[in-house]
Amino acid sequence: MPRERAMPLVPEPFSSSIISMGSLSMRNLFLGNKGMPNLWAEFCPNLNIPQYRETLSKEKQEELDKRASKLKKRAISNHYYSSSEFSWEVSAWNDAFGLLYDDERFRIDKRPYEFLDVDKAGKKTVKKRIPDATFGLRSYDDFFLKRGYICDTPDCKEDHTTMQPDKRLLDGDLQSMMHDPQCGLIVDGVWGKTELLFPFAVYEAKKRAINSTQAEDQIHHACRTYLAMLDDLVRNPDNVAEYQTEESSKYQLFAFTSCGSYWQVFVSWNMRNDCMVETIWEGDVKEWGRAFDLICIVDQIQDFAVHHHRPFVMKHLEAWHTRHQKTKNPAKGVIQQTNATTAYMDVPDEDSVKVDSNPLDGGNTSLDPHADLDTKDSVLIDEELAYLNSITPAWFLLKSATEFIRRDTSNETRRRNRSLREAARASEVAKEAEKEAAKEAAKEAAKEIVNEAAKETDTTPARGRPPKTTYKITKAKKSPKQGRPRGRPPKPM
Q: Annotated region Disordered: where (predicted)?
């Protein structure tokens, strides 16, 4: 039985993932160098690399040898110079995924994917994560569909049938089908976009091996999300509780991690409604043999994407396009009717403008802008909102609600931070004012002390002519000489 799904479809990752522990060490013992994907999934690369090499032409073998040497040389250089994570990513894009990047049937980009998150209280929000690379199908517009694929190589004799654009991947039809509430199938990791369709591989890079656990956790989450997209694709649009065919459940996803020069390759598939993730290869690409192994595995995954994944996706899109063709005309009528009934909301009413500009003209002077609406108008607005909800896919409503909440939260955070900054600035200004006042008071007190001290010790005469000093000079009296007194002696009595 497939996992529970119901209309309207809202992308929801697998609830859990099962990690195949020790798969590499146990494979030779129990499965004869074959992993569990060989038993459950549609495709698994041939991990017997010498055997795979024998199936290639001599020219292809020489090309692989050169690519492996280049990958090894770059890995040694990055390791020697302790290069940044960005440098390791550039090496992976050029040396490991170069052919995939040049293939016009696919798109590789570092872009986010969105997923539904439900908290403990049951509140649903849309969150996003950004892997270092996502590999998926490209969409086409009318120009590319009419022009077709044109080979730039002169005298090319290869068959380019698989390179041709396909109308099932037409951008406009995918957009219309995705926004149809009766379909609502998400085709891109970014809800509402049609630039990178139904990924078949994902890549996560880290600078050091100590971050390998973090890289694996990120890969497991991406596998749960992208695998769920494929699970929705293969459902029967008329009854999403069942698959379109018996083979529809055999969808899968590949993943790569690189922690420095150490690489791992994973394959993920749906096993009994759980996301199964198994490590099928790992090695250090500073060794030429391991670099060659990785190049061969990547090439096999590219062949899988060309000959299986792309046709698989286009085949299962047919049923969704068919359902959309049945439901799009009524939906168009609802959209046109809703636009007609709500058109007056976009056109300013002259009378209402006058009333708003001059409330003394006898019009509606109430502070309530809806005071002049009667019950019928209110019911009409509710019906219009119901129409809008009925013509809007569920995923769009959820994403819009999340964006509004995120924007309100962001604005509230900005307001709170602004008020905190203003309060801190006012506090700093008050402190500076107090410091300045204290400095001025200290200066005044110091001046007073200096002035008082100067008054007590100042002996400097005042300016102008000095005052005239009056004093009396007295001569000292000479004491009488001691000798015979002068004059007649006194008469005796």
A: 409-493
